[in-house]
Write a structure and sequence with these properties.
Metallo-beta-lactamase, Chain A; 2 domains; seven-stranded mixed β-sheet; six-stranded mixed β-sheet
Length: 343
C-alpha cells in the first residue's frame, strides 16, 4: 500500500501548482466572549468562526471535560463545498450534535452530504445521533472501537458531565471514509490515515484552502490524551504531518483540542510532550522512583501552563509508568531490555 505522502505527491502532481491555495486570513477571529454554555437552557452557545473560504470551525474550550464548559472541549468544523456540506466530528453529546446541525443550517443553505468522525474518542462521535439521516463515516478501526467501547464511553461522560449528556446514546459511524483525493464542489479534499494517538487517526487536508484537520494527532496549549496511544507511532505520524506542511500542502492546522493555528507550533508542542514523557518516565523508573512520587512532582515550566493539568498528566502516569517500572526491574535483574513502550 502506498504511504499517504506518496499518495499526495502522485495524486496532486502538477495540478497543485496549477490550483494554488487561496489567500487565507493571518489570524482566526475569537469567538464572542459572551458565548458561554447555559446549563439551565441546555444551550452550548456554539459559534461558527470562518477560517477560510466556505470553511468554519466551531471551537471548544481549551480545558478538560467539566459541566462548566458543557463538556465541549473539541473543535468541530464544516466545509460548504458548493456541492454540499462536509461535517468534521460531531461532538460529545446528542445536544451538541443537534445544536451543531442547527448552527450549520443557519450558516449555509447547502445540504449536508458527508459527516465524518476523525477518531474513536467520545467527543468525536457521541453527537452522531443528530446525523443518522445523513449517515456518519469513519476509519474501520475507529468504527470497531466505537461499537466495542461506545456504551462505556457514554457512561463515563455521563458521570463527568451530568445533565449535558441527557439523551445521549452511543451511535457508531456506519460507513467507511472514501480515502484519497476527491473533488467535491469547489474543493479538493484528501482523506489520509495515520495512527499513534489512536490505532486509526483520520486526517483531512483541504488542498483548496490549505487547511488540515488533524484530529487528536496535534494538541495545542493542552496536555495530550493518551488512553489509546502508541507514542512511537504517534511521533512517526507527526513527522509525516510536518513533511506535508513543509511541502506546502497546508498552512492552517485545526486540532481536535486547542486553538486553531498556523504552522507547526502545535505539532512541536505535541512532539516535545511525547518525547519528554517517555524520557522522564524511563529515567525515573531506572532511578527507582515509585508512582506516588511521580504524581507529586511538578512539571517542567514549559508544560505547567497547559490546559487539563495535572489531571491529564496523572492519567498518563497511571497508564504508562508501571510499564517503565517493569522494564527498569527487568534491566536490573538480568540486563535484558524490554521493547520500547507500545512499539
Amino acid at each position: 500500500m502506498k504511504s499517504p505522502l506518496w499518495s499526495l505527491s502522485s495524486l496532486i502532481g502538477m495540478s497543485a501548482m496549477a490550483s494554488p491555495v487561496m489567500a487565507l486570513p493571518t489570524s482566526l477571529p475569537p469567538a464572542p466572549s459572551s458565548a458561554q454554555p447555559d446549563a439551565m437552557r441546555m444551550d452550548l452557545a456554539l459559534h461558527a468562526t470562518r477560517l477560510a473560504e466556505r470553511t468554519w470551525v466551531i471551537e471548544g474550550a481549551v480545558d478538560d471535560f467539566h459541566p462548566r464548559n458543557g463538556c465541549n472541549i473539541i473543535n468541530t468544523a464544516f466545509i460548504a463545498t458548493g456541492a454540499g456540506v462536509v461535517v468534521i466530528n460531531t461532538g460529545p453529546s446528542e445536544a451538541y450534535g443537534r445544536q451543531q446541525r442547527d448552527l450549520i443550517e443557519q450558516t449555509t443553505r447547502e445540504p449536508v452530504v458527508q459527516v465524518v468522525n476523525l477518531n474513536q474518542h467520545p467527543d468525536h462521535f457521541l453527537g452522531n445521533q443528530a446525523w443518522t439521516t445523513v449517515g456518519v463515516q469513519a476509519l474501520p478501526g475507529s468504527r470497531q472501537a466505537m461499537q466495542q467501547e461506545g456504551e462505556s464511553l457514554t457512561d463515563n461522560l455521563q458521570r463527568l458531565c451530568g445533565d449535558w449528556q441527557r439523551g445521549t446514546q452511543a451511535t457508531p459511524a456506519t460507513a467507511s471514509v472514501p480515502m484519497g483525493l476527491h473533488s467535491l464542489g469547489q474543493h479538493r479534499l484528501e482523506w489520509l490515515r495515520l495512527d499513534g494517538h489512536t490505532p486509526d487517526d483520520l486526517v483531512l487536508i483541504d488542498h483548496t484552502t490549505g487547511v488540515a484537520f488533524v484530529g487528536g494527532l496535534v494538541f495545542k496549549d493542552r496536555v495530550p490524551t493518551t488512553p489509546h496511544a502508541s507514542p512511537a507511532r504517534w511521533l512517526h505520524s507527526l513527522e509525516r504531518l510536518e513533511a506535508w506542511h513543509r511541502a506546502g500542502y497546508f498552512r492552517w492546522v485545526v486540532p481536535s483540542h486547542g486553538p486553531v493555528h498556523q504552522g507547526l507550533s502545535g505539532l512541536a508542542q505535541t512532539r516535545d510532550w511525547l518525547q519528554w514523557t517517555e524520557r522522564h518516565m524511563r529515567d525515573s523508573a531506572e532511578a527507582g522512583k515509585d508512582l506516588s512520587e511521580m504524581l507529586n512532582e511538578p512539571l517542567p515550566e514549559r508544560f505547567a501552563g497547559w490546559a487539563a493539568q495535572p489531571a491529564e498528566w496523572h492519567r498518563t502516569l497511571v497508564q504508562w509508568y508501571p510499564l517503565f517500572e517493569v522494564r527498569a526491574l527487568k534491566v536490573r535483574t538480568d540486563g535484558a531490555l524490554l521493547p520500547t513502550l507500545h512499539r
